[in-house]
Amino acid sequence: MLNVNTKLFAILGCPIKQSRSPIMQNNWFKEAGLNCAYTAFSVEKKDLKKVFETLKLLGFCGFNITVPHKVEIMKLLDFIDPAPKAIGSVNTILIKNGKTYGYNTDYLGIEKDFADKKISVEGKTIFIYGAGGAAKSVLYFAQKNKAKSVYISNRTHSKAISLAKQFGAKAIELKDSSAYIAESDIIINASSCGLNKGDKLPFAINSVKKGAIAYDLIYADNTALCKLAKQKKIKFFNGEGMLINQGISAFEIWTGLKPSAASAKRILRKN
Ligand code: NAP
Fold first, then answer.
1. How distant, in Å, are the alpha carbons of 23, 37, 74, 182 from that of 7?
2. In a designed cystine with 245, which of 14, 102, 109, 160 is the match (CB 3.0 to 4.6 A)?
3. Atom of ligand 1 nearest to the CA of 109
4. Hey, how many other C-beta atoms are within 10 angstroms of the C-beta on 31?
5. Strand ranges (E), 136-221
6. pLDDT of residue 194
7. What mean pLDDT value characterizes the chain?
8. Could you give all domains of the chain from N- to C-terminal order, each with its CATH number?
9. Do 32 and 256 contact (CB within 8 A), yes or no?
């Protein structure tokens, strides 16, 4: 039951209705017997600073940050971990003794999910579609884990060029994507394309390398990439593992405790 001692956490973003984090984090707080509660606030860009300062004042202990605030929030923090500094985005904040600390658990989430699935990126060729905040975490993960070549393509090509420069990848124009996909071991959708029914990725997959895999950051089956993977008969993974693992890392940062991935999977699939 909530009381005056309840420690409060929240996710801030816009839109926020699709977020699975409150279900997952509240379930873990309950399992750990912690007097904590996690909620979600829809925060428009123009209100971020005001809302953040207010929630701090009210004693909130931590936050997850999602689209479109992951970059802007960095200006409001006291300390930022080295990984989010290199990535250029923060998705988890700890408030301790009045100071704010920024982390990026999206990158930790994909790294842990690949490790769980025993997929190594070392020496591999990776094709990434998308050049938003999530793509930056994927690029950092690929770079840190010694991928051989990383290709990045995006609807707005200038953004792919800019991220390619930041992370030592090669920007590929959409019209040329198919040829680069054909030589890739791992094809990743790091864009929002596929969130809406009827979304179609703006590139084709004509041929694939033997043993190639497809990975969609979107937490749903039957995404646009999933359909292409089925057509080409290659292994497909959705973003469930990354979502759970980024949540686990955030929970560890806030509480020092390691929550259960299996119970998160159960509760997410039920709700
Ligand atoms: P973002 O910063 O808003 O970037 C969106 C990206 O998607 C941009 O590259 C954008 O292209 C592209 N895009 C959007 N709609 C498109 C469409 N209809 N056709 C083609 N391209 C489209 O978002 P983000 O933070 O990077 O998140 C991207 C996705 O990753 C979201 O679906 C999010 O749910 C997912 N995600 C999952 C996890 C997880 O734990 N599983 C973690 C983080 C994010 P333009 O640049 O041309 O606009």
1. 16, 6, 23, 50
2. 109
3. 40
4. 14
5. 149-153, 170-171, 186-189, 213-216
6. 86
7. 96
8. 7-104+241-270 (3.40.50.10860), 108-238 (3.40.50.720)
9. no
Q: How confident is the model over 198-247, as pLDDT tens digits?
A: 889 999 899 999 999 999 999 988 899 999 999 999 999 999 999 999 99
Instruction: Say if residue 195's pLDDT is above 90.
Output: no
Whole-number Å distance, alpha carbon 4 to ligand 1 midpoint, is 38
Contact 116, 241 (CB under 8 A): yes
Look at residues 29, 250, 264, 237 and name the one whose alpha carbon lies nearest to residue 116.
237
User: Tokens 């060729």 map to which residue?
Assistant: 125
Tokens (6 digits) for 154: 């995006």
Q: Which residues line ligand 1 (CB under 6 A)?
A: 67, 106, 109, 130-135, 154-156, 159, 190-193, 195, 199, 202, 217-219, 239, 242-243, 246
Q: Judging by beta carbons within 10 Å of its beta carbon (0-12, 13-18, 19+), is residue 200 exposed, middle or buried?
A: exposed
> What's the whole-number mean pLDDT along residues 125-148?
97
Q: Tens digits of per-residue pLDDT, 149-166?
A: 999 999 999 999 999 999
| Residue-wise pLDDT tens digits, 59-78 | 999 999 999 999 999 999 99
Percent of the chain past pLDDT 70, that is, above it, reads: 100
Ligand 1 centroid distance, CA of 193 (Å): 6
SS3 129: strand
For strands 170-171 and 149-153, give the pairing.
parallel
pTM here? 0.95
